[in-house]
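protien #1 (seq + structre)
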Amino acid sequence: MITDNWNYIYKISGGNPRTTNMLYTPMSNPEETVMCMSWDKDDPYQSANKKLNAELIDFFFEREVTYLQKFQLYDWAPKLLDLDLKNKKIFVEWNPTTLNRILFKDKQNLNDICPSWKIQIFQILKDITDNGCYKMALYPHCFYIKEDKIKTFDFYSCLLRSERYVDRKHINGMIGPDSGKRFDDATVGNDIDFDIFFKNTLLTHLGTIWPDNPFPDFYKKLYD
């Protein structure tokens, strides 16, 4: 697909549009029906991330492809439309109605827009954990609504629970200035223990981001 006239996708944070992540460039077609994840370290979208390099891109691009394909059978995974391995571009179905937009741009109540949002997100988490995996990216901008169905993406943040220890040097380049403590709290020696990271994410971190935060209850249902 030719993306020359496509538009960057941003999230709203602190009342202002900001980049959604520190790895890939998200853009949508003019009709806003397809999203392209372009894994290009030189794209202007990522100009603020001085630590982004080819090794980091390769590491997380492989994860995005692996877990997006793994979860294609689930209706909460965006349909994979095209995969350009040479240029590291992933194309999936899209709808601009992200939960971030509903909450922070349109300033609407999720219970009014999608009364079953908690049930749907819990089911997503349960399906992922039942597959022996974690998914760390659980922010409102990582979910969108398409025909009353909540879908999630940013599968680069997934990993197998059996591979919970990851050498921190592999991912230092995507740790933002506001995220350091989260990773420090889960660092054991040279490794990040993502079992600790995932637990802390659900029990404490997301409470500052989600109104009517359901994630501590999700954690208890999954593990207690």
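ok now protien #2
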Amino acid sequence: MRADGRASRWTVAAAVAAGGLGLVAVAGPLLVDADPFATALAERLRPPGPGHPFGQDALGRDVLARVVHGARISLAVGAAAVALSTAIGVACGAIAGWAGGWIDEVVGRLIDVLLAFPGLLFAIALAAVLGPSVPNVVLALGLFGWTGYARLTRAQLAALRRREFVLAAEALGAGAPRIVVRHLLPLAAPALAVQATFGMAGAIVAEASLSFLGLGAPPPTPSWGAMIDEGRPFLLVAPHATLFPGLALAGTVLILQVLGDRLRDVLDVRAVERG
């Protein structure tokens, strides 16, 4: 009972922290008065102090304002990339899991081929070809991240395809789209929700990696990865320029990982998979 209570408290804490991140991303400009784009070269690399709790970067911009505005970029890219990956993956996995036969074989081999390529390298190549921008980052991350959702959906539908309630629905004249959408996908939703939470954490790290390499949001748009790269040459003299965006990135990923782990226990995904 105590273990359940602790697990429940961790779940609530993770959910509240994730909600706080969302609030920061949405209401960022209202929370911080400083302009994240305003430069003050005479005050460049100043350490944290009154008026600038996180200090100033190499161009004299307020680090706190840029970290808060960077949350909007990171969470928006993560959510959009996960939504695109989920849409593609669920569609492909549902078709393969329901149809079976050669269609399932073709989709399965396609997934295996894509999984053979390092996903981040594929995203780097695609972002380099398309050019640095937020929509291109979302497209690059979405196109390489759908395979996990497809495999999960395919496995769920293949396991449920011959269950009694499915056969009963078919006997009553329900078509395949209706059965898949109304009966099967809701049973796969808990596992997909957990996968999406972990996937969003991975997408945020991938976006920061692309921005660190100059393939993410173009300057001067605040991005945690770009801020880490901008502060890297001054790490020994002004560590705050790199420390705070790094902590924001690490904290966000930790919150999402804990939330995904707690959701897996709360939704009892393993019991759903056993059917």
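The domain at 2-33+56-274 is CATH 1.10.3720.10 (MetI-like fold).
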